[in-house]
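Exercise 7. Given the components listed, write out the predicted structure of the assembled complex. Treat all entries as one system.
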Amino acid sequence: MNLSSLIVPLLLCAVAIYASGKKVDVYAALTHGAEEGLSVLLRIVPALVALLTAVSMFRASGAAELLTALFAPLLEIVGIPAETAPLLLIRPVSGSGALAIGTDLMTSHGPDSYIGRVAAVMLGSTETTFYTIAVYFGSAGIRRTRHAIPAALAADLAGFAASAWAVRLLFG
Amino acid sequence: MAMTRIWTGMVTAALICGLITGKIDAVSAAAMEGAQTAVELSLSMAGVLCLWSGVMEIMERCGIAAGLARLFRPVLRRLLPQAAKDEETLAALTANVSANLLGLGNAATPLGIRAARRMAVGCGGIASDELCMLVVLNTASIQLLPTTIASVRAAAGSATPFDILPAVWLSSVLSVVAGLCAAKLLSRTGGKR
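Answer.
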């Protein structure tokens, strides 16, 4: 038995029982949340159509390979697979762009391959840094961001390297 | 505008590169396939994404978010001592962190903005050390259940879409720690510019 196979059923069951104990209408919450999930998806679809079109063209033309080859020596030093170079470049700038490139990596290399897993973990453990900084500082009226951008990018870089390392560690 | 440049740049690069490498037929086919894949993928993602959004809603309603917020109060007090002096800022901060942990981006951002606004009062438009810290906390995502990624993996045919969870947690924590250390270090060496 795979231990991670336990996560999903256990979590569903535990949440339902715990929430029932707290007198929460579990079924109503579940369906309402699912509805919200659908609206999230509806927001993603147009961006995904636009970006997956560009990403597939970019890959088919050989431009992605070029980019990968360009960054390979640099990325190998920190132990990040070079195939993820386009993902690293777009991640801090665009969330849906990163999702499109990550999806492309997962489907072309296989979701359970090393590259596919690293791409998934990278997406899960980093954020759209520049967007977040713009939203927070913009709404707080901050014009001089001082060390926020370098520190946030350091977190991203550490997250990328850690993703590759964690996948190697946990999946061999 | 940034997205316009990225999109145009990618398409242009594909055209030029395709012409040079002689793969322009493949580029043309890929454009159509890409758009098609996007919708197919979205449809196959829909089920898993909806299910987990539902589970998140249950968690939220039974007070897991509030419990997480209580858990993070002392941590945030230590991390942002100035901001934590104000009870309302601290409340917004803890709610921001717990919403982020549950992957409720739509809820997390307004809460974080409320905290940032209160912290920015009297800063004169210059980010304080603690404001930089708050932004780093929010740019380094820690998410307990990365549901969107798991649903993409499921749609792509993964045998166990959630088996990346421990790896995601591990690298999220490392990323946040690195960001906070960088912020601390840079605030010292950078001085008050």
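Discussion: Chain B has a mean pLDDT of 89. Chain B touches chain A through 102 residues (CB under 8 Å).
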